[in-house]
Amino acid sequence: MRTGGGRPPRAADMKKDVRILLVGEPRVGKTSLIMSLVSEEFPEEVPPRAEEITIPADVTPERVPTHIVDYSGNEYSLVGEANVICIVYAVNNKHSIDKVGVTFFHYSLFQWSTSKVDPQLPLILVGNKSDLVEYSSMETILPIMNQYTEIETCVECSAKNLKNISELFYYAQKAVLHPTGPLYCPEEKEMKPACIKALTRIFKISDQDNDGTLNDAELNFFQRICFNTPLAPQALEDVKNVVRKHISDGVADSGLTLKGFLFLHTLFIQRGRHETTWTVLRRFGYDDDLDLTPEYLFPLLKIPPDCTTELNHHAYLFLQSTFDKHDLDRDCALSPDELKDLFKVFPYIPWGPDVNNTVCTNERGWITYQGFLSQWTLTTYLDVQRCLEYLGYLGYSILTEQESQASAITVTRDKKIDLQKKQTQRNVFRCNVIGMKNCGKSGVLQALLGRNLMRQKKIREDHKSYYAINTVYVYGQEKYLLLHDISESEFLTEAEIICDVVCLVYDVSNPKSFEYCARIFKQHFMDSRIPCLIIAAKSDLHEVKQEYSISPTDFCRKHKMPPPQAFTCNTADAPSKDIFVKLTTMAMYPEDHYRDRLSRDMGHTDRIENLRKIWVFLKTAFHARLRCMCTCNRCTFCICQNFLNSDLLQSVKNKIFTAVLNRHVTQADLKSSTFWLRASFGATVFAVLGFAMYKALLKQR
Fold first, then answer.
1. Per-residue pLDDT at 564
2. What value, to the nearest 5°, has the Cα angle with vertex 395 and ends 389 and 397?
């Protein structure tokens, strides 16, 4: 804890300037005080009133511009503009001392009648002309100070011999920049609840091992980040001895407890060192009302269009240490009590019960380490401002010694650039899951979290989530797949269309289910570059014919999409994650998917025609070798003809057509000699096998 000098609070955390107003009865020396401060000597001739004086920031102790105003007459507007009021009296004039109470009464009346005056405006009593008496007026003033808690302090001074002149205005400036009112209650002689709450949060953030005490390393770190200077070992021990002397449970296991921490700050305030407490409070983001400032919670972060936000490596390291700090039983999961302890530095509980159905949990429903990171990744992607706020509550910028929480965020580049470069730097991919109600979308979301149907049935209706996020490995790279359940509607909004990949889900046991998927695809995605995958959900049930003009398989073939993927979460163990790997891959390489569709559009007709020509050529090759033209069904020609037209060979032909048409062929493949060499080789093998069959049949004849 601070025992010596340190840097003052940052100017950004303080007021831009300070306005000091001097009031009091005539001839008590208000103007003389101002003139003596400016000229550093007592003026021989004192004007009726001094002009407003501005002291530059570089010559004031707190580095803040200070304006000093001499009050005269009934200029009540000056009271509303002031940051601190100095009530001046003459220590040798009992009448002026008695008038202090009257002056304060008039001020209180004005304060009550107008909204321009800050109710916490500090007041300072100034006893001038102390050079004319041999005694102090403090005994007379003390009852007034006890009566009015707004009075910060009383300073006796002399404008004539310059006694305490600089100190007077320093205390006035200090009363504005480091007010006592928000921190301390003089009547009860203890800190106010808001101050205790703020300091408790600061203690919990500084207690990095979460053992309930601040050890020497934590105290030194705290000292360095707040005051930019470490404490010597002896100074640390002296601080602990002061605490031990006054309270029994202020030090435990050579560490400072929360009670000891609060006691030290109470001691600072009681001894007039409230600037120490204010330095700590402002370093941790608090304003004069002991609220966290918007500048601290929401630092500036520019996000261009078509860009997303992700946590960077340093943020994940911080969150990992935060998780480890609160995982007291080391089971790699946060119990409800451990999670509650983590959120004690928040003004509210940020996560609801739906989070447990958004990320991975253990068998007891507790959020795992992976689930913890996933939830932070989700918040960063969907609402980065909220993520910045949450990191602010956890003290990210302080513990990592960064300028702000914005340093934890990576803004990805424009998606158009990813498409142009045919590679992406993103780690989080959004998949919109679309389908009719009760088609199995929730099952798909929960399957991403490794939950089968049995576990899904235990989820309460009011705890369901429209999001699910988990890691997926693609070509050895760990990526986050974010699934968003889109509610059924006739038309999707623009926000519901924006994503990296689309998952269209239909129920194989519901004949009306596929029609919705087909309609949504044609309305929004048929001409877009967003890759789409159709999921045939509930594949463990009996499949019925869909009431649509063509089957789902033919629909996919027609629109150059991968065939429908059978999926079920009614499994003994965790459902298969194959579809999630496929969705993530499509999201990572959307240009390949688009190019596939384009190449299929361009070459689809030619490929069908070429296959038909090959088939006709093979049939002709057989027939050219045969001279018999009868229909006896016993000769070689008739046997070959019947074989070529048989159901078996037709089935083989259809399978070849399907395999070739659905093959993942890119535009580069169509231009590759290797591809066409393989196709020619396959056709040759087919022809040779056919000719061998013909020779065998001929021998039998």
1. 96
2. 90
